[in-house]
Amino acid sequence: MNAPPRLVYLVGLLFALFPPLAPASAIAQHAPPTREVSPFRPLDLAAPNAYRAADGRPGTEYWQQRVDYEIEATLDPTTNILSGTEQISYTNSSPMALPYLWMHLEQNICAPNSTSNRLDQPPLMFGEAVFDFSCQGFEGGVTLNRIESDDRPLDHQLYGTTMRVDLPEPLASGATIEFEIDWSFPVPEYGAARMGRDGELYEIAWWYPRLAVYDDVKGWNHEPYIGAGEFYLEYGAFDVELTVPARFVVVATGELQNPEDVLTPTQRERLARAMTTNEPVAVITADEAGTSATRPTTDGMLTWHFAADSVRDFAFAMAPNFRWDATSWDGISIQTLYRPEAMLWEEGIRMAEQTIRHFSEKWYRYPYPHATTVEGPIAGMEYPMLTFVPPGANREELQWVLMHEFGHEWFPMVVGSNERLHPWMDEGFNTFMDTYGQEEYFAGTVFADTLGQTALHEYAIHALPGVERPMGLPPVEQTDLFWIAYRKPTLMLRLLREEVVGAERFDRAFRAYIDAWAFKHPTPADFFRMMRDGSGMDLDWFWRDWINSTARLDHAITDVRSSDDGTEIMIENRGDMEMPIELELTYADGTTERVKLPVEMWNQGDTFVYRVPAGREVTGARLDPRGVYPDTDRGNDAMTVR
Q: In 3D, which of 385, 316, 347 has the Cα closest to residue 73?
């Protein structure tokens, strides 16, 4: 039967004025939904298909192109001119016929009319380091002398750092075309923070014309090279012959094919001995560096022959006065080359061995025959099997940069994401993994104990409202690339691993992602789907807040009420970021208890009540007692009982 209207009104008024305590339980909702759009709605991702599956893995019909290079090049240190001839073999594995090819000529960033030179953009700050993505006034650029296939010239058009090559007829699906290019370019002293020279030390990269990526997501990826965005390249094989003056020592991507021609018997013996131990072996000692004893001959020119497979790029370095240390781990040759005055680098070989071992054991085994790092003028840059690292101001800085550049052997050298669009997928993933490696190397020190909090402490400096830009924007649109590409992704992933998902579930999913996309081209959507699939958790809300927006976190305790039936802690999400909560309760007997509340606490809206059953007297409550979240207002995180 129906109650009288006046009784309904009185009962409703009583409930409004004196809301009853819900039955004692660990978690209960307080407020009805107030949102018009759910923060837990699915991300707007491209639909899965035969190329990219719903679980984030490559689909049953996934394809990618292959490019093989044969290069013969000569570097003349008297003119600083690098000239070469390359034969390119391009295999079209796509289902589409291709009427033309797009290529990158990053050397043209130093041309007077390049986009970078015309814009004259200021350098970017990377913490205390300055990265000038220009050639600092150097005028150069590539000279193309010949582009032809089957002795027939190929029509081509240059557009700054990109080039379109028109084919005589469309390249059919499954077909291969071979063509040749003759070229030369002057080596800049400082080449957009990626390569350069210092006296007779040369660190050479993006030095040959190379193919852009054609994939199933965008077709041709021909974004111009401006400097801040790095590289997105196809995998293939390289066969490279480098002819240089005989007094130079050369190291490069790939395995040396003619050691008997370019190394002394003593050096070959020492390298072989280094493969039997994880103790450092001096291939070229301090006393030998720069002397004729390091070379089989110092007259004329010598040709160094290198070969590599399943790599996306090729770089090399050379100098006449290298010190050279070597060791090994699990059959992998690990090498450091440095100038005699770089004294910190005597420890570099141990840092290098620990890096390769740590990343291999924790995430994915290093797949290449050697890992070599070279000390020089470049502030830090990575290429397959070879990295460029500066001298270092102290042990901590040297170890950090050395580990970071070697970490890029995993991202993006193995997992080939598009750095020119999504730097958080390589710089961010790498920096995140670096923190754990550095904690291991410096274990037991105050420095190691504070590393995990570094990115959090930087939040207040960099995550400024109205200034910070979403992580998902390409690097050329970022004003604080250090934060967006390196540090914020580190904070994001540490919180995801340690507070949201849990280390065991995260590590298993992250390793599966590396394994599934090794030597392939994943997108952000593939990563999101694989982490969801591997962790068993829907994380769309997390990626939306951290990557697609500049959402800010502000959790607050608005009230603590005690009664005979127990204690209610009123919690409110005052920001626009959803995250789980850790709540610390203080009891009258002086003890404390910490409770972790999952993100589902916000399913019903932006307010939540945590109820403590009667029996223990609560005297206070505090959010985030360990201080691990980037809460923008710490003043509302704690309250005593009212």
A: 316
